[in-house]
Amino acid sequence: MELDKILKDLQEHMQKTLNHLDAELLKVRAGKASPAVLDGLLVDYYGAPTLLSQVANITTPDARTLLVQPWERKMLEPISKAIIQANLGFNPQNNGEVIMISIPALTEERRKDMVKKAKAETEDAKIGIRSVRKDAMEASKKLKAAGIAEDLIKDLETKIQKQTDDFIAKAEVKFVAKEKDIMTV
Of 75, 37, 39, 40, which is closest to residue 56 (Cα–Cα)? Predict the structure, then answer.
């Protein structure tokens, strides 16, 4: 039935928005080494921009160090250059075999900046969730115009709002957890 499809699409799109929020929050570092902070970093690989994860192995030997081991030794220099240009606040050390990145301890001011960034990502996710709700509400109005019973439409709109509230609450929980993670010294 058309009503069920609207709810299913709503759920699907809102879940995608939350998954995107998870990915973005992983990139906000909390003073601990995580390969996720280098996700999406593009490296010049024979003239073509290529994801770092496709030209090197990224590991964390300890809580404050990232180790980038390229599969080809001649990629050491382009990888170092890409990390510096990404302006992540890292100073990569190239020893001829691997690139070591020491993750500096975060200052109180830097932690607050990270929290602001996480908050902005969460707000973007909430906007995305509300946008999905708006589309679902418009679809329900079209059904109403097509002659579907008004009580079914009211029920659908109530379910849409409940889903929206639930997903916004989930986004907020994710933010609170990330904030705690960032502010924990």
Answer: 75
